[in-house]
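Rotation project, supervised by the postdoc (A.L.). Task for the rotation student: set up a whole-complex structure prediction and record inputs and outputs verbatim in this book. Inputs entered:
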Amino acid sequence: MKPAPFEYWAPTSVDEAVKILSGLDDPGDAKVMAGGQSLMPLLNLRLSQPLHVVDLNAVGGMSDISRDGSTLTIGALCRQRTAERSADVAAAVPLVVEALGLVGHPAIRNRGTIGGSIAHADPAAEMPAVALCLDARMVAQGPGGERTVAASDFFDGFLSTALSEDEVLTAVRFPVDGPGCGAAFVEVARRHGDFAMAGVAAHVRLEGDVIAEARIAVSGVGLTPVRATGAEAGLRGAAPGDDAFAAAAAATSAALHPATDVHASGAYRKHVAGVLVRRALGTATDRARGNR
Amino acid sequence: MSHREITVTVNGAVRTATVEPRRTLADFLRQDLGLTATHLGCEHGVCGACTVLLDGDTVRSCLALAVHADGHEVTTVEGIAEPGEMHPVQSALWESGAFQCGFCTPGFVMTIYGLEQDARAGRPCPRSRTEIREELSGNICRCSGYQAIVDGAEAALTAATATATTTTEGAR
Amino acid sequence: MSSSVMGGFVGARVKRREDVRILTGTGRYIDDVQERGTLTCHFVRSTVAHARLVGMDVAAAREVEGVVAVITGEEMAALTNPLNLGAPIPNLLSPTYTALATGKVRYVGEPVALVVASDRYVAEDAAGLIEVEYETLPPVVTSEQALAEGAPLLFDDVPGNVIHTGEIEHGDIDAAFAEADHVLTDRIDQHRWGCAPMEGRGGVATFDRSTGMLTYEASTQTTHLLRLLLSGFINQPINLMRVVTSDIGGSFGLKFSIYREDVALCAAAKHLGASLKWVEDRNENLTAAGAARDESVTIEAAVKADGTLLGFRVGMVMNNGAYPIMPPAPVVTNIAGYMLPGPYRLPAYRFSSTVACTNKASYISLRGPWAVETLIRERMMDMIAREVGISPVEVRKRNLVPVTEQPVTSGAGFVMEGVTASETFDRLVEMIDLDEIRAEQERARAEGRLLGFGMGTFYEPAPGTPEFWGLIGFPFSHEPVRLRIEPDGKVTAFTTQVPHGQGHETTLAQVIADEMGVAYDDVRIVFGDTDATVFTMIGTGGSKAGMMATGGAMVAAREVRRRVLDIAAHMLEANPDDLQIQDSVISVKGAPASKVALAELAMGCYMAPGMMPQGVDLDLEATVKYDGENGGWGQGSHACWIEVDQETGRIGVTRYLVVEDCGRIINPSVVDGQVIGGVAMGLGGMLLEHSAYGDDGQYLAGTFMDYLMPSAPEVPEIEIVHLEYETTTMVGSRGVGEGGTVLAPAALLNALDDAFAQVGGKRITATPLTPTKVLGALGVIDG
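Outputs recorded:
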């Protein structure tokens, strides 16, 4: 299984990449490649046969991790392994580090990028769920310049995002955890390192012994990662504990209608999403208490 | 489809070639350079048989293009020991009787070699057998049931960690 | 141990010599064959399960730069004879077929055309331009569908889609059930899973126009059979046909057969007068190479009140897929039928089997192909224990036949002798504390955790007996070995084994070094090349090598050693019985100064035979056959500890214990590797792997993202204890390759049943044991 032929572009700047994309007769004929860890299997299997591949690997200045007050910005080309090992990321947005540890295997993360995973938008992948949970903001550059898109608007279908065909994702901005914040990512996969049958990113902020805010995103249960908004609403102002978490689990499951595939049935995913919500909230709350 | 000229340092030697952009790094190594130690077990990034080092980091050579290696350094099994000799990682795996058919072996050797380099440099590396198993989970072996591979990896990493400790202490 | 130390190699943990090239990446697997001028082949494969082939347009593909040929099914049919791979089996209705599909396609992945091109990228480009027109027919996916009244027929000449039925009966089965205090019934639908070696199939076929010689370097486990069948299918004189192997990246039964791809490749090479390479990619391997374990078994057990077995009535239906290949599926149903009574006393037995053809890739042999018999029998033993209120230990102890009570007639009617399953089980029981296990389970339940414990025992034909294989309808063949002392005193031995991971280059050298009194490093093992090795039907497979290849090596070494001693006796003026060979020197026992070096003797035999003693055999090369005496059996008992996450349905194997007996151990590393690898395969097959098909016959697991192979964290640490019971045969060793895979599924399933029994879970009767099924059985979700 070998890739079909494509025209290869290796821009050295984002501007050039955008220019290449927007200069094509149909930018939809192109695939943008970052780390390639999602795209390369599709090319090798010829499930994707783009006429053009615009490879961002030679683009400079898109791999930085920087913190500006309450925002942590990770360049889209930042390798997952770099972010995973970054003390700055661990201190500012620990959920990212925990989730990255579940992405594939080290050899995948050495090559895979933060932006690539998010732009590929696999609903079973970890990083889109994290972005959705934290309401990260995606920085996109297109012919008309730069814009930011909230995660809640970004994932708009199966392997589909709000990026237009001539736009490039350049960075992801995560809100930095403040006092009383705690988060957890938990998932259930058939094997270590597999795409999960379901996964949950949960983030809570405690005020006193009350949940001031809870954010929950579930992966592997739909065409996109999904926010458990019903569960989140029920948790607001609640005392953290078994009852509140069980109610959140039930509310999460009730709102889901996952599909069946060779790895798990829809009923399984629906149930397990609730279990994972309960477990993730427990861990996130413990961490939040430790963070006060 | 236009070809591209690439210059890659492979196992310390500078190699120049003209390749189609779609050519995978694995095929470049195996077919264009004749370095057949790197094996292809799935070509979709799951089995790990094609693991090589790219600028010192383990990567799947089936999930990289040859053009990605342009201007970079690649290390394969052929490059970790002199011909006719074994690297300590290889010796430890030989000692533990790690492998049977040997097809997955180069990928495991390179993954463990990558960990061993971390250990020698005093960087974090897996210690317990459970951690080693998790770290090796991106490499599939159909023959061994993994136990003897973990034995060999454990021995190699323990030895490398000891070396690192000694070096660090010596430096103090 | 150091390989320069003399003697005592057998039994030592000698490091494998294969590993030197394996670890340094200098092996030669099939895709490493990269001779200049070799062309690459790629098969175009059916995208539908069942259809008439109405048309194919290959014109655009032929125009692609770099494409040398595109061969259609009809064109290939003109170059080859129809394939019939089931002919030697009695009562097998084995339809013939063509190397590439003609007329109809019968499974997703069936080859319909062959593209020959300068490289694989180009070949795949061209394949993408080939338009195939199908007129689809209703797919037949399950055995039930195949056997249903009025089912669509796959072959016009296979009525009812049934290619074979078989019966085994021993004892008075009706009396057994009439006498029974309890009658228990069970059923297992085992899912389809596969061999999935890390290297798929493949070969390089080279036709030499100057000599008319066709050489096929292949990734196979059986060279001579491949050569024999290929020559017939492609009309190549067999003496102008050579099959060669080098390193083989695993097989597990897959590479025992000859495949239509082999035929097409060799025929095309001959037709084009070229060297052609085909290397199966993973998608092809999973989709089209075939898979196994696709069978349903029902069992009724007649049992006395105390748990004593009276009789089994068993029915087995195997889903053969579309085309019978080697070994034909009835061989598997037959072995399953004869082994099912296991190492227990069973007075009466009836087994009936049906093999159905369906629109799936072929049923192929997979490590312990008959394993379903152990799965259903050992599960039944636990059912019986629960029914009559005794422990799983007690129910087995009451029915196992100790080796001291053998020979005895097995439940299926053949002589069972030297079977130590009972002894392995006793040893296993000594190592566990069932009361403590139950107490721990109770403590865990109090914490909301669910633990399960299961065990099982079995025996297997490793290699079996001539009588047993006679019943199966498959010959118990002799094992030839050719061995010579070279002029410098070193030893070259030619085995008909085709090793693919089993370490025969090491173990046979250990055996020969000890027998001959030479250094291990001075013994080289040659394998694979049909121009060098002696004909046998089977290469490596069926757990034969431990006994048969070892025996062949011993007989050959002893024959040549005898000749050496006869010659040396004249030279040293001594009685041959008074001579010894140590460190490649022949000397008189007790008079070490009276000696001659093996090298000196050998050089004399080769270079100056006239100056050597006369009246003795100076030929230092012998070809011998080991008849296997009366064969023997492998056996073992396993115990499996699991924890079930009742919320996620995940099963974790927390401890695994094996007591096995393959007789005298030649190399503990090799034996342990076979056992651990086998157990891992059995557990992975039950928990993760599934060659799944949709209702439409589409294949659903065509990548390693969907076909889940166990990785290191999914496999537990496996503890092994060896018994080394030696029968009276010359060779103390028996086979060990398959047992782990045969018994592990049973021990695991029994552990799951044990866990479920504590919390009222439903028994799972259709594998694999997915988290979804576990939660369904626990009543957590519907299903």
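Student's summary: Chain C has a mean pLDDT of 96.
Supervisor addendum: Residues 562 and 576 of chain C are 8 Å apart (CA to CA).
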